[in-house]
Amino acid sequence: MRVSLTVNGRAREADDVWEGESLLYVLRERLGLPGSKNACEQGECGSCTVRLDDVPVCSCLVAAGQAEGREVVTVEGLAALAGRRAARGAPDGPDGPDGPDGQGGQGGQGGPGGPPGEGATRLSPVQQAFVDAGAVQCGFCTPGLLVAADEMLERNPAPTDADIREALSGNLCRCTGYEKIMDAVRLAAARQGEAVRPCP
Amino acid sequence: MDFLRPASWEEALAAKAAHPAAVPIAGGTDVMVEINFDHRRPEHLMDLNRIGELGEWEVGEESVRLGAAVPYTAIMEHLRGELPGLALASHTVASPQIRNRGGVGGNLGTASPAGDAHPALLAAGAEVEAGSVRGSRLIPIDAFYTGVKRNALAADELIRAVHIRKADGPQQYSKVGTRNAMVIAVCAFGLALHPASRTVRTGIGSAAPTPVRARTAEEFLNAALDEGGFWDNGRSITPSVAQRFAELCSAACNPVDDVRGTAGYRRHAVGVLARRTLAWTWESYRGTAAAEGGV
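YS: structure for the whole thing
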């Protein structure tokens, strides 16, 4: 079957989709967006987390056909999403990235059916915070954590540690022990706060 | 495989009548796991996400009519006052991503003894609204679970909503697992005080082939509270009453040994949860009753 959906702000179509296929498979194998990772395929690990109509979900548990006509944001679209939020005046600050959504992954490699995104090599504030805090080791869990953390910071700009733990409780990381990830999210939250508060 | 996309409840019933083996999918948190792991290859997959009413709820005089696909996140955020036990149970479900998709209709459809919502539904009192082209009926929650992953639905029926009695007193829910998130219950326990009828109801999860109530324990406690005038005098429940209640709750279990825990552990843990939830709810009742000048 054919599935039409909006991914990272752009209308996309996938053909020859098997009816039992997951949204994750469509994103990775048919739309050339391998940022969302395929690990447990049972909703345990969160590495496939995407936004479906704004809501964070495990894309491995969404049937492809259920995404018909809906809006998906993947880790490849985080920088552009942050840019759009900044343009609306909240809460990423005036220096947030903008430009078209990265469709082809980092390095500007265009996926099939999509030209290299100009914004692909820019990072959203939460991505930059993960880099700066050293929150990435093997990197497999990182895309899911980024999508989940970004959504939490959008909802809750000043999270407590308990809020962060709760928001990321569906994302498993086997390398870091989570401490650097906590540091990264705290850093992103602090920078977000500085950006919206005028300097004394 | 065919992917069916009914746009309305009536279309869904017609499709289910035409294809009784069609597997309904809403949040997908059970169904997609089975498909991803090749444990299930239904001929028809029926998406219920386009039927908006399944994601809605209505708060009535005596009960809440909860659409089958209302996600756990919405129950936690919007129905904590009316359905405190179910809201607590919802918060123990998996992770935010799963709670954003999964709902009570799926828990009932799967009818796993470990489903997190079941003990809360049993304790609160609920009826499952099932529909088919033949009409609709309300199935009492006590008659809904018929075996391991089996329920009272006919092949052509779909779950439309659950009617859950609004709390008239404190409710609690407790679950045993190896960590806070992403845990299938080793066992779980729900308890609801119903001061209006001066009764207590329970629900046990993951400690019998189906979710069950601890009926003998309820009868014992109802009688003990009545005889001691506890509902009126607001005294603390005596340790011996709490202990006996816990023993009877343990005795209501019929657990198995499996990877998550042994039968003996489950029986013991259910007793502990029963004693704790009784203390929490009763102290809360005493506090409320005292504040209202009732005792």
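YS: worth flagging: Chain B has two domains: 2-165, 171-291.
IM: good catch. Also Residues 171-291 of chain B form a domain with the Enolase-like; domain 1 fold (CATH 3.30.390.50).
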